[in-house]
Amino acid sequence: MALIDFGGVKEEVVTREEFPLSKAQKVLENEVVGIIGYGPQGFGQSLNLRDNGIKVIVGQRKGGKGWNDALKDGWVEDKTLFSDIEEVARRSTVVQYLLSDAGQKDQWSAIKRNLTKGQALYFSHGFSVVFKEQTGIIPPPDVDVILVAPKGAGRTVRSNYLAGSGINASFAIHQDATGRARERAIALGIAVGSGYLFPTTFEKEVYSDLTGERGVLMGAIAGVMKAQYETLRAMGHSPSEAFNETVEEATQSLYPLIGKNGMDWMFASCSTTAQRGALDWSKQFEEAVKPLFTKLYDNVKKGVETKRVLDSCSSPDYREKLQRELDEWKQSEMWKAGAAVRSLRPENWKKD
Question: Which end of the chain is more exposed for a tag (fewer CB within 10 A), N or C?
């Protein structure tokens, strides 16, 4: 593995130079990868694997959106697409268990009774294995248990692959029954489109992932944006001005600069007034939210967050409740203003 300096800490990373796609294809040439669940990750990973010449079959409940999406994407019923996930588990040498976390708990007995010695059980999230007391997912001792977790949504796994950039991922080995678990995990990581693979553990992956989703990736940013927008509105600013200063400038101008060259470069690209204010206030925000992140991580590690997920997502009226919560965002003034602002972007102008 390549040794890369991450801010003064040297870490080993698997690169495509040392493990090219051709090597991954050789490792996987006799494998049949069974994708269980055609949600965002199942969609992205299965299509990338197929495009890279890996034998893939898909298991998905018939009649729903996932089934119809799979048919549209070229999977053929009773040949590469099956409504019986147990059949897919039996036919596969690698079972990629990509249902939702609640779905994995619900369907585990069907998967477990069809696993056989030498198979690999593959996850893209450490949730089910780490919190086995809540999920009941304890793999049999004679199968490899591996993880490849792309650092992005399943749709991005596919779109980045098609754009030629790929998406990096972490990987982990929970159980090596065959002596090939690490090689299988790395090969699958490369074949689903990763450029770099970062070693981790199932525990560290789920702790960091759940913290990140609830924190700066989604939860914290949504809450902070809403707080600033509502403050500006309460002080008499118009919806368009409040949205532009809260979201539009961030996502269209400043965040891309951070992604391209880092926070220091973004600061250096702004006015001196913006620099001074941002540098001063960043410390105050850090002090204010640090205790909240400590509480969040503690809740993740103790299983509070996973229990809430399983209890909520297993409810028969979960989707109806979820839609009501999502509609609250969609129908709020802030995000209605956002829809109007987005429609005025130059790329959406009508051509003369």
Answer: C
In contact, 170 and 202? CB cutoff 8 Å: no
Confirm if 69 and 37 have CB atoms less than 8 A apart: no
Residues in the chain: 352
Residues 208, 159, 167, 212, Cα dihedral to 10°: -10
Q: Which domain holds residue 342?
A: 213-348
- How many domains, in total, are found in the chain? 2
| 172 occurs within a structural domain | yes
What digits encode the pLDDT tens for the residues 124-155? 999 999 999 999 999 999 999 999 999 888 88
* Active site (catalytic) residues: 125
**Which of 43, 72, 74, 67 lies closest to 154, judged by CA?**
43
Q: What is the pTM of this model?
A: 0.91
Domain co-membership, 196 together with 246: no
CA pair distance 182, 217, nearest whole angstrom: 29
Beta bridge partners of 32: 55
